[in-house]
Each structure stands twice: as C-alpha cells, then as structure tokens.
C-alpha cells in the first residue's frame, strides 16, 4: 500500500466537514448549534447535506458530534449500539423518557457504551467547544434514530418535519413531504412504556469506563474496553481496545479484522510495508485486514488511542436491562 493509498483511509481532525442540519432538532433553541460529522459510513444523519468522509463500512459506523457550551442533543434512541468517547471538553449524558432517569458526567478520554432500549441525550457542560467521537453498530447503523415524541413535536414548531423515509423537510424553506411520504409517526403510549428507565448505578457501573483507569490498565498491554471479557462486557458487533505508550510491541503485526484507530492524545507513527505516517489527536485511520503494520508513539509525553475491530457477533445489538 502506497502512502497516498493509506492517506485516503485517514480522516484528519482538521479536515472534518460538519453538517449543521443533520437532525430534526437542528432549529430547536438549545440544540441549533450542533455540528454532526460522519467519518466512516453514512451514520444516522437525516440530512442530504451530510458529508461522508469514507463510505465503506467495516461492520460499524464512525461519527462525531461537536457542540459549543450549553448546546444539547435531544432525547433519542437507537436500535443498535452507540458508543461515545470524549475527545474534547466535559459532557453530561442523560437518559430516560423525559431525560430525568439518570445522568453521568464524562471527562476527556472517558468512554460510554450507551445500552439500546433507552432514550438518551447529551450536552456540552464545559467552557469551550467540545467534541465526542462515536461508534454506531451495524453497517447501516440500525436504520436511523427514534426520537422522543416531544422532540418531533417541538421541531415542527420550528419548521422541520421528518418523513417516514428518514429524510428531513424544512417547511420554512418551502419544502413539502413528497407524494407517498408521510410524517414520521411518534411512539404511542404502549411503545413508550417499553422504553427502559435504568438507574444511575445500573448504567455507570456497567457501561462507563474512565480514562485514568484505562491508562493504568494499559501500562503493559492493550486494555480491552468493550468485548466479551472486557471492562464493559458486551458484544455489540465490534470490540474496543485502549492503547497507551507501552501497550504495544513495536514490531509489525496484522489482523484478519478491520482495524479503526482513533487517536485520543499524543502523536502516533503508523508504519507498514510501503510507508509510514503520523496520526494526530482526533484523527481516524481505517487499517485494512491483512496489512502488516506497526504502531508506536512518535514523540515523548502522554499518548493514547482507541482501536475498534469488527467481530462476528450480531451487528450492533447491545445487551439491555430486560
């Protein structure tokens, strides 16, 4: 593989292209400054304006959300896994039918494997622009987002209508639902009653891993964060490892799986038979199966990254609280 071919498989943080109209709450006050990024795969964006950096998926999708302080993402749920780690800032994640069942604060480097079957939202509670990176289960990310009824109702007051084809239409821009397309129905009372309301203890003890703990556990070998026998025991169709400075042998290795490298801190040199490059904080690299490669920090100081690989488990389905 030539350096140019590898570079085409890297999405640089500085090259990320945001979409500010990705979801139904794009005009809702308090949520109208969000930026959505689709890095690998189409994700769950509802807007035709969304730029997709790498279309080929490895069994899951990679995305990101960027938000200024006090900006929030409205309550929604997914049919497949949704995993976030905080790249920049301080974030509050909350859940429940009204967003009041529980909450947790995540700092930079922390990771949250949000279980399926619950409404969730998040907001930047830091003082600067924040960024969270996301892994969504399945090649098609479960077919989209399921919004809490109040989110759809409030959005309609600001001109946005979600069709049952999963596409947004802005009535204030003169857009109408096409023939044969109906407005996305809201969940009824029976469906809402099936939405879980887990406690803070249930969620935080089983689905959150802290950066400082993973740094300590990865002192000599990669820390398995999400997997069958990991810190977060789950089988969502992918596994996640946390790697720090002394976690890896610097020799060449290969994997039969797709390997997505997502740099948290520091600068990492990726070498392979054919070239080398440096990955920086916020960069995402898709290493193809079977490629002999080596990975090591290229500078002194703190260095950490997440490595995501596809598995043979049923794509995207996390365990829940049933």
From TrEMBL:
Keyword Metal-binding appears in the UniProt entry: yes
Keyword NADP: no
Gene3D superfamilies named in the record: Jelly Rolls (2.60.120.10)
Record keywords: Metal-binding
Location of the Cupin type-2 domain: 69-132
Pfam family, one: Cupin_2
Protein name as it appears in the record: Cupin type-2 domain-containing protein
Source organism (scientific name): Granulosicoccus antarcticus IMCC3135
